[in-house]
Specification:
Structural class: alpha+beta
CATH topology of the largest domain: D-amino Acid Aminotransferase, Chain A, domain 1
Function: DNA ligase that seals nicks in double-stranded DNA during DNA replication, DNA recombination and DNA repair.
Bound molecules: adenosine-5'-triphosphate
InterPro entries: ATP-dep_DNA_ligase, DNA_ligae_ATP-dep_bac/arc, DNA_ligase_ATP-dep, DNA_ligase_ATP-dep_C, DNA_ligase_ATP-dep_cent, DNA_ligase_ATP-dep_CS, DNA_ligase_ATP-dep_N, DNA_ligase_N_sf
Protein name: DNA ligase
Distance between the termini: 58 Å
Largest sheet: 8 strands, mixed
Number of helices: 20
Helix content: 40-55%
EC number: 6.5.1.1
Number of domains: 3
Pfam family, one: DNA_ligase_A_N
Oligomer: single chain
Length: 600
């Protein structure tokens, strides 16, 4: 296919802005496009060589190099081109002007007798630009310039204009994905009424080039049967938002699967044979950022070909407990990925399955998807099924929500279990409803809490006590009421030391002055006081501090972290339940003052 056709359409498309006109012009272009290059034409229209999710290099040619290439192609000096560029402000137009001047001069001189250069084809342009984008290492700069110069030499003025604009990332044809979908429906389906079929296919395979190719070769009938394909991301299903739990249940048809809503990075994980791909919420290829996740998935999820979805969460390397989302940011900032993995380990909490061994699971109800998902994940310390309950009871839902928050989750996802609750790729609907606390406030101050129990570590730290039940002092009742379980902030030396102290303080039953609903692996006599900081104070049914104040539970500290021991304080000098209540109230006040409609 001649590249001339593309350049001419770019020129026409650039001059119109009406969506309808754009669509019909684009449909016109698609009709003239060879079947075997239609995917490439679609990418070129998008200003790309390939879809973003492939994680392939971009053209990455600076303007200086582009000027150099144009200079080689036209024998006009770099300085002269630079000067023209300064006055015109568009390198594409400069290329056009130079080529046109040269063309008329040569026509005049030779009256058309000059040997015409070979016409540029889409294939040639695409292949050469691919080489430009992918050549690396020593000498690659010269190779890139030479390839571009070669294309520009053979180009007509109009072709040169759009080639330069494309390479410069300044194509001005404002065509979004939606318009391309419309045009594809018209070209290959015969009208807009085929748009839903094309759109559904795009939701399952977020690759417009791939969709166009299927349509061009197999028509709309083949597209109707399209399934997800490992390696091509599925557009994610999104949730609606509500704040009234009763309304949530009635919206999803009463019976719901309620998942913890984890606060990490969404990961759509594909397996195709021995290859793993991880795509982000925005469908970027993030596989290189999570080689550990790729390894866990291939090790602990059974199957040769599948697509699963989950949240990637930072965890405490010692205890496996959830850590704040920000740690993923620290991890990404590290240049050495192996160091990053060690310092900021992650776990994956899977919540959906979209494809398994050739079968499209997006069309199956959630109950079936989840059952299958559970059956393919092997028991291990790194990949888990999202913690969930199945309920139609508002009180149970609320209780679970507070439990989720107190364990470091952001809230819960209420998901419909209706027979038609499919995976609605690419759309936000009422089959999933998010129920979360949307505010973030650091605790204004640290608290001093008493250690009243200890838990064994999981995984690598098995055997050692590595998380600890902490309590505030209630002077009215002279008891210790629990506030949180702390597992992070301890150095190895502090932890080792603590094992010895625990051996001295441990007891078989709770100390009579300890009020707790949680049951640790070992109870301790209240003696050790530690300074603790957390993200915020929340209500939790798991803790007993100020339990008489709120129907939903006691007050608890989210993401608590050990700062230091306070040997200068006796247990009765610890922060009191009243102080914690005051802190909670002032935190609420702060939140109410914030302009947010999302507080729960
Ligand atoms: P949205 O994704 O709805 O546009 P957002 O990006 O701001 O909004 P949230 O409002 O936090 O995200 O809620 C949706 C996100 O919650 C999902 O994209 C997913 O990453 C995350 N999530 C965590 N746990 C779950 C779960 N169990 N089920 C589904 N999504 C979950």
């Amino acid at each position: 296919m001649e590249f001339k056709i593309i350049a001419e359409y770019f020129d026409r498309l650039e001059k119109i802005s009406s969506r309808l006109q754009l669509t019909s012009l684009l449909a016109d272009l698609f009709k003239k496009t060879d079947k075997n290059v239609i995917d490439k034409v679609v990418y070129l229209i998008q200003g790309k060589l390939w879809p973003d999710f492939l994680g392939m290099p971009e053209l990455g040619i600076g303007e200086k190099f582009l000027i150099r290439a144009l200079s080689i192609a036209t024998s006009v000096s770099d300085d002269e081109i630079e000067k023209m560029y300064k006055s015109v402000g568009d390198l594409g137009q400069v290329a056009f002007d130079i080529k046109q001047k040269q063309q008329s001069a040569s026509i005049l001189a030779f009256l058309g007798a000059q040997k015409a250069s070979k016409p540029l084809t889409v294939e040639k342009v695409y292949d050469d630009l691919t080489k430009v984008a992918t050549s690396t290492g020593e000498g690659s700069r010269d190779i890139k310039i030479r390839l571009l110069a070669g294309l520009l030499k053979d180009a007509s003025p109009l072709e040169a204009k759009y080639l330069v604009r494309f390479v410069d990332g300044r194509l001005r044809v404002g065509i979004g994905d939606a318009t391309i979908l419309d045009a594809l429906a018209i070209t290959f389906g015969g009208g807009q009424n085929f748009r839903p079929i094309v759109e559904r296919a795009y939701n399952l395979r977020a690759d417009l080039g791939n969709i166009a190719k299927i349509l061009a070769n197999g028509g709309i009938e083949q597209l109707k049967n399209i399934k997800p394909q490992p390696g091509i991301p599925i557009r994610p299903m999104l949730a609606e938002r509500l704040s009234d739990p009763a309304e949530m249940l009635s919206k999803v048809g009463n019976l719901a699967l309620v998942d913890y809503k984890y606060d990490g990075e969404r990961g759509q994980i594909h397996k195709a044979g021995d290859k793993i791909f991880i795509f982000s919420r925005r469908l970027e290829n993030i596989t290189n950022q999570y080689p550990d996740v790729a390894e866990y998935i291939s090790k602990y999820v059974k199957g040769n070909e599948f697509i699963v979805e989950g949240e990637i969460i930072p965890v405490d390397p010692e205890t496996g407990e959830m850590r704040p989302f920000q740690e993923l940011m620290h991890r990404k900032r590290k240049s050495d990925i192996h160091e990053a993995i060690k310092e900021y380990p992650v776990n994956v909490f899977l919540f959906d399955l979209m494809y398994y061994e050739g079968e499209d699971y997006t069309v199956k109800p959630l109950s079936e998807r989840r059952k299958k998902l559970e059956s393919i994940v092997e028991d291990n310390d790194y990949v888990h099924i999202a913690t969930h309950i199945i309920t139609d009871n508002v009180e149970k839902l609320k209780e679970f929500f507070y439990q989720a928050i107190s364990e470091g989750a952001e809230g819960v996802m209420v998901k419909s279990l209706a027979p038609d609750a499919i995976y609605q790729a690419g759309s936000r609907g009422w089959l999933w409803i998010k129920f979360k606390r949307d505010y973030q406030s650091e605790m204004a101050d640290t608290v001093d809490l008493v250690m009243v129990g200890a838990f064994h570590g999981k995984g690598r730290k098995g055997g050692k006590y590595s998380s600890f039940l902490m309590a505030a002092y209630n002077p009215d009742k002279d008891v210790f009421e629990t506030v949180c379980k702390v597992a992070s902030g301890f150095t190895d030396a502090e932890l080792d030391d603590l094992q010895k102290k625990i051996a001295e303080l441990k007891r078989d039953s709770p100390h009579p002055r300890v009020v707790s609903t949680m049951v640790p692996d070992v109870w301790l006599t209240p003696a050790l006081v530690a300074e603790i900081i957390g993200a915020e104070i929340t209500i939790s049914p798991l803790h007993t501090c100020c339990k008489d104040q709120y129907a939903e539970g006691g007050l608890s500290i989210r993401f608590p972290r050990f700062i230091r021991w306070r040997p200068d304080k006796s247990p009765e000098d610890a922060t009191t339940n009243r102080e914690i209540l005051e802190m909670y109230k002032s935190q609420l006040k702060k939140i109410e003052e914030k302009p947010s409609d999302q507080n729960v």
